[in-house]
Amino acid sequence: MEGEDKGSYEAPPTCTLLDVLLKNRRPTGAVNQVWPRLYLSNTCNPKSNQTNNGLTHLILHVMNLPGYYGDTGVAYLGVEADDSKDFDISQFFSETAEFIHTALTQNGVVLVHCARGISRSAALVLAFLMIKRGLSLMEAVETVRKHRNILPNVGFLNQLRKLDSQLHRRTEGH
């Protein structure tokens, strides 16, 4: 738009994000594909048919024993993150985005898991969509919400808002 300062982009306010995240909620299953070959889940047993779906890569909300996943042939990344508004999950944004991107580039199937499949795992998937697929935070939220109810905690939303602003400034050349 003429006269608009492109450097003034602001991520959507937290209250707007919460409105989008809380409206039109409907039942979703334990495992949902939210992007081609990328799944969000609150269940994590790579040996079960429910979560397998050709699974090649797994992101867990805690570091689990290598012995449990070692015989599955699944590559995994452990992310020790508390589902707390005070926890800095942004420290994992780049690493998990790269892990997902690499897996998908190799035609892998990725499952991102946390206890309820709505906060920690959702925040990591949203960050991936923003960092590696160029979506804004709102576009990422709307994309995932088409397939699964998510609700990252307020602290995670604020960290995603910060990432959104940083990425937008970078694409604008600032």
Automatic annotation (TrEMBL):
The reaction(s) this protein catalyses: O-phospho-L-seryl-[protein] + H2O = L-seryl-[protein] + phosphate; O-phospho-L-threonyl-[protein] + H2O = L-threonyl-[protein] + phosphate
Any coiled-coil regions, as ranges: none
UniProt keyword list: Hydrolase, Protein phosphatase
An example Gene Ontology biological process: negative regulation of MAPK cascade
Active-site residues, Swiss-Prot/TrEMBL: C114 (phosphocysteine intermediate)
Domain Tyrosine-protein phosphatase: 29-169
Domain Tyrosine specific protein phosphatases: start-end pairs: 90-148
Family affiliation: Belongs to the protein-tyrosine phosphatase family. Non-receptor class dual specificity subfamily.
Cellular component GO terms held in the UniProt record: cytoplasm
GO molecular function terms listed in the Swiss-Prot or TrEMBL record: MAP kinase phosphatase activity; protein serine/threonine phosphatase activity; protein tyrosine/serine/threonine phosphatase activity
Name this protein carries in UniProt: Protein-serine/threonine phosphatase
